């Protein structure tokens, strides 16, 4: 696929998605959801204005309460940052959302109707929740294009995989994602030859190929250059125009660059919430986190 064809495909896919997701912007920088419409089969029901809802969630490991009566909700199209000291429960929270860890008590819903505690980890990924861990995990011996192609949401059976050929819609989608993650010029490069930042973007692109409604991203700018960090902030803001994104991060300048609502966790529960400026001025946050 030549760069001009990829660019054209990206534009077609973007126009189609723009028609599908027509609407204004939320306070967090994402789209405004049409909460009044009736949910259709195969879509996450966000008619109540929340795509993720946790209430009074708790889990203990060998007597240590990693999550303690945690309540949190995320709006459709919202980009939210989660910060807090080590041991605050950030990773455990993501483990619970994705089905890796089962809480001892509490409620976890994806949209208004999907009880995530009734589903296994693999099923939750299929439902529309993608997760990116801190260390990039790409197929380094394959090209950028091949990594994205493998990540397509298709039948992964042996026969189906052997007979698989990209159709025009899939080609357009792949081109769109390449453009989004700024790797259109690196489509034929081996993933192993990419910079650290580019590998992070490629893995985000692989998740986007799965068409998640909610994306969980763990410390995306760790080890990045200043230029890569700035571009990653731009990338996440762009992604939040069409889906919800939760970012766990320690880099306060990166969080400031995102300019979105921040939730501070401490000892497994919410300590403070609001703009970065608001939580930085919160004496409780200063004492347990920022003052260290």
Characterization of the model:
The protein has 292 residues and is of the alpha/beta class. The chain has a single domain (3-45, 77-100, 124-290), classed as Rossmann fold. Helices cover 36% and strands 20% of the residues. It is built from eleven helices and ten strands. It has helices at 3-20, 90-97, 121-127, 144-150, 158-163, 168-180, 196-208, 226-239, 252-258, 276-280, 283-290, and strands spanning 52-61, 64-74, 79-83, 105-110, 114-115, 129-132, 214-218, 244-248, 262-266, 269-274. Strands 6-7-8-3-9-10 form a six-stranded mixed β-sheet, sandwiched between helices. Strand 1 and strand 2 form a beta hairpin. The chain starts with a helix and ends with a helix.
CATH superfamily: P-loop containing nucleotide triphosphate hydrolases
Low-confidence stretches: 1-6, 19-39
SS-based class: alpha/beta
Distinct helical segment count: 11
Main sheet record: 6 strands, mixed
CATH class identity: Alpha Beta
Strand order of the largest sheet: 6-7-8-3-9-10
The overall pLDDT average reads 85
List keywords for this structure.
292 residues, alpha/beta, Rossmann fold, four-stranded antiparallel beta sheet, 11 helices, globular, disordered N terminus
Q: Quick recap of the structure?
A:
The chain is α/β, with parallel strands linked by helices and 292 residues long.
Topology record:
Layout: H1 3-20, E1 52-61, E2 64-74, E3 79-83, H2 90-97, E4 105-110, E5 114-115, H3 121-127, E6 129-132, H4 144-150, H5 158-163, H6 168-180, H7 196-208, E7 214-218, H8 226-239, E8 244-248, H9 252-258, E9 262-266, E10 269-274, H10 276-280, H11 283-290
């Amino acid at each position: 696929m030549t760069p001009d064809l990829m660019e054209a495909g990206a534009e077609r896919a973007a126009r189609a998605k723009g028609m599908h997701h027509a609407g204004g912007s939320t306070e967090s920088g994402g789209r405004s959801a049409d909460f009044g419409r009736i949910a259709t089969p195969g879509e996450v029901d966000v008619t109540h204005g929340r795509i993720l809802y946790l209430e009074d969630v708790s889990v203990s490991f060998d007597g240590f309460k990693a999550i303690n009566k945690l309540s949190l909700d995320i709006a459709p199209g919202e980009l939210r940052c989660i910060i807090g000291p080590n041991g605050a429960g950030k990773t455990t929270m993501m483990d619970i959302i994705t089905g890796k860890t089962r809480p001892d008590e509490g409620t976890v819903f994806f949209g208004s109707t999907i009880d995530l505690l009734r589903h296994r980890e693999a099923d939750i990924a299929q439902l529309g929740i993608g997760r990116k861990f801190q260390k990039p995990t790409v197929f380094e011996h394959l090209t950028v294009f091949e990594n994205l192609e493998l990540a397509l949401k298709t039948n992964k059976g042996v026969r189906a995989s052997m007979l698989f050929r990209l159709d025009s819609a899939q080609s357009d989608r792949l081109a769109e994602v390449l453009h989004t993650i700024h790797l259109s010029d690196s489509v034929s490069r081996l993933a192993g030859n990419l910079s650290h930042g580019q590998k992070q973007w490629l893995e985000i692109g692989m998740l986007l190929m799965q068409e998640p409604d909610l994306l969980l991203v763990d410390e995306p700018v760790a080890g990045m250059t200043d230029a890569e960090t700035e571009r990653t902030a731009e990338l996440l803001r762009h992604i939040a125009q069409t889906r919800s994104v939760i970012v766990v991060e320690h880099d306060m300048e990166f969080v400031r660059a995102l300019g979105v609502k921040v939730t501070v966790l401490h000892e497994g529960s919410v300590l403070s919430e609001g703009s970065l400026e608001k939580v930085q001025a919160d004496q409780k946050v200063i004492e347990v986190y920022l003052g260290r």
